[in-house]
Amino acid sequence: MNVNQSVPPVPPFGQPQPIYPGYHQSSYGGQSGSTAPAIPYGAYNGPVPGYQQTPPQGMSRAPPSSGAPPASTAQAPCGQAAYGQFGQGDVQNGPSSTVQMQRLPGSQPFGSPLAPVGNQPPVLQPYGPPPTSAQVATQLSGMQISGAVAPAPPSSGLGFGPPTSLASASGSFPNSGLYGSYPQGQAPPLSQAQGHPGIQTPQRSAPSQASSFTPPASGGPRLPSMTGPLLPGQSFGGPSVSQPNHVSSPPQALPPGTQMTGPLGPLPPMHSPQQPGYQPQQNGSFGPARGPQSNYGGPYPAAPTFGSQPGPPQPLPPKRLDPDAIPSPIQVIEDDRNNRGTEPFVTGVRGQVPPLVTTNFLVKDQGNASPRYIRCTSYNIPCTSDMAKQAQVPLAAVIKPLARLPPEEASPYVVDHGESGPLRCNRCKAYMCPFMQFIEGGRRFQCCFCSCINDVPPQYFQHLDHTGKRVDAYDRPELSLGSYEFLATVDYCKNNKFPSPPAFIFMIDVSYNAIRTGLVRLLCEELKSLLDFLPREGGAEESAIRVGFVTYNKVLHFYNVKSSLAQPQMMVVSDVADMFVPLLDGFLVNVNESRAVITSLLDQIPEMFADTRETETVFVPVIQAGMEALKAAECAGKLFLFHTSLPIAEAPGKLKNRDDRKLINTDKEKVENDQERFLSDLRRDVQKVVGFDAVMRVRTSTGIRAVDFFGAFYMSNTTDVELAGLDGDKTVTVEFKHDDRLNEESGALLQCALLYTSCAGQRRLRIHNLALNCCTQLADLYRNCETDTLINYMAKFAYRGVLNSPVKAVRDTLITQCAQILACYRKNCASPSSAGQLILPECMKLLPVYLNCVLKSDVLQPGAEVTTDDRAYVRQLVTSMDVTETNVFFYPRLLPLTKSPVESTTEPPAVRASEERLSNGDIYLLENGLNLFLWVGASVQQGVVQSLFSVSSFSQITSGLSVLPVLDNPLSKKVRGLIDSLRAQRSRYMKLTVVKQEDKMEMLFKHFLVEDKSLSGGASYVDFLCHMHKEIRQLLS
Ligand SMILES: [Zn+2]
């Protein structure tokens, strides 16, 4: 995605960075006078002559042709009030915000006051702990469920372990003393949680009569509540039994904790015949605080997250548990957008929890890496391993080193230290970063990772100001920013040679199947134009990447496309058992130089094989050939394989047919069906910026170390993650463990260093730094967790676990761990007044619903229709997903289309992924990053049907349609625009499927309504919450 773009909005290097003026003025103004000119980065070439100007890259590139319009273009005017009426039957998820999805305009003056002043660290403590105001958003509140008071059992480790073989990162830095002398030290520790329980909801308590549920604020028995429909069976067995012996009481009727003192009775039945439909506990235990609550009114005034109906209690109980009474993902997402999407996230504060991934926000790098590069499960780490074990909260970072940034944010600056290369700690080899402490007048620096004292090389010397800070700190990215790059010297290159530009090799299956389906013709046609869009470095006129072509069936054909040739030449290699590359000169070429020959080749390939009878293909030898070709050319690169059938030809890597035969000659194998998706993904893959030949290392300050890694990579030792290629969509997840005591004052530091070769063949180091807080109070841990990242980690952990353990064991482990996390919170952080009740920590209140989505995913609870290949595919995908992707993958987004005005230019507010949120008078889009459905309600107005599908009635809509007709009316434009916008937000093309209500294809769609019970036995959200409650109570008893 590089070429066609306009000039990146980021000013070139020497110009004032919009970020910096603000940096100086608002936070560090007092100091800046000592050195920094108004244009702080003007002097990057500072100590090193010959600094190379390297414009930012990798962002803001518009795809040339495949490009769906950006989100903001999904604003087709479509007006009409006519559709407004369709909202009526819908269930709203609380306040539907209209503020969502707003991104600050690029022209937003960064020099203007940044985030609230309170968020700015004082001058002398640039990395101190977040000020109080920063904690407002993470104050604890909670849902309370009654339970018995009991100490939690000692937490145990995870039941099954991945091979945590990676033990010896410690070799690289000594466990010696603290490094507490750098400035952020002075932070007062966060105090423990007080008054956190947010909302007290009515309590459920054991044992009593089933029928005596007392609704809040009215108090009479509520027999009618028992008469609801019987819910379908539940997935959790367990000790929850069917005796109808519990009663729920209104919270305001009892002082806190009163009910808890009773014997721990059996849990309310999950699905007993006597208790159809959860009525009793629903209202009782999860109900929102309706009306005034005298007892708890004080501490929990906000109560924004639960219970969206502020009105007085309904005269009649709902038929089922009111889902609005349990934590709603939609509400949490909305709240975060409203609270945190309006001002930039400034990274100068240590341990600051970023906005949710679903919130649009700008990032200002003031010393810590953007959350687009690194997200942590917690931004406040327990000081001791005992605490960490007790809490069971995994400590992990999801790192996307080459993440693409929005156009408003600058790519990391490239720093050139000339022949001496980047400055590093002599002992632990950490790279110079803002946390290094300069001492002795600037002649030495103490490493913030290992405390080693290092000499400052003469060419790097600079005086310190009265605060001990180098006077050039703000002129140097590596002293003031969380993320930056160093140009690598030859020491960082393979064989001590600077790399050649990378190559792309296109390897095309030309067997009968590939020809017949039309793939070869389609591909060759597309490549002719696509080759103009190979990735290139920021300002480069053309891509440095060279290309080569191979076709194959049972044998391989290499092509010489040297620019001096009149026609391409083919060379056949039939000895697939011992692959070699028959030509060097003329195989990998510059597209512009060889354009005529390449075009000729791409024209000829479909013709040459048009009459092929060859049905068999090889596969492994093709990969070998590609690798050999790269090796022979001494360059890194990327192989594009276009393969259409099982490799059954006699060759290494031969496979046997399993059950694919039935697909032959069905629609599923026709290329037209997936043409759009294929081309869209191909365009993205060819154009995206890639880092080649990469090695990533994560260093940590003393006390913790990286022990486990998740992702698609290779490791030949316990510390270095090796990747042949890494693009802006791929993440590496790193888990940390304690190996010593941490220190509240100094916190903990991570430094991720990625050594890679850029698309232009430049060897670089990209550095990301992140400082975290450390705590001695568990409440501080629970206040600073990031549930989306936790889920990302837990899913990856579990998905790897299924390779070695039975799926059920993996599921049980996840459930146990989640229960331990929540039980520990309840035991150690809940206020005394809520003794005996479960309180979900505010920032983890979605943990149960999201975890349930992981548990019922195709990998952990596959339905009958999920093939082994499907599971393997998903497992592989999730391994490299970032937090944004796992968030929507596990909890899909469901958007009602006719409820908001047609002329509305924002995305409609999402509703919860549950069937009961669907109105049969509306249409919905559902997306999870891989799939995209358009669900049409059976009673949708005829005008809507006509506007969207150009047919006169619901019954005439073709089920399974994958393309909407292009119609010139506001609604059609709006919906198609929205679809384009959703696709543009995801890293893969999502093929559309139109699903009609009550149609047989609806089963497919319902699979993604993840709050409901699933066909494969996955629990509904409500059931799972009950189950978690039981598990937690057991742990506490
Ligand atoms: Zn060091």
Keywords:
disordered N terminus, 1037 residues, five-stranded mixed β-sheet, seven-stranded mixed β-sheet, binds zinc ion, alpha+beta
Structural commentary:
The relative contact order is 0.15. The strands form 8 sheets. Strands 7, 9, 13, 19, 21, 23 and 24 form a 7-stranded mixed beta sheet that branches. Strands 17-16-15-14-18 form a 5-stranded mixed beta sheet, with helices on one face. β16 and β17 form a beta hairpin. It is globular, with a radius of gyration of 30 Å. The two termini are 57 Å apart. With 1037 residues, it is of the alpha+beta class.
Low-confidence stretches: 1-319
- How far apart are the termini? 57 Å
Largest sheet at a glance? 7 strands, mixed
Structural class: alpha+beta
Shape: globular
Number of strands: 29
Averaged pLDDT, please?
75
What Rg do the Cα atoms give?
Answer: 30 Å
Percent strand equals 5-15%
- The oligomerization state is single chain
Contiguous helical run count: 22
Bound molecules: zinc ion
Helical content, roughly? 10-25%
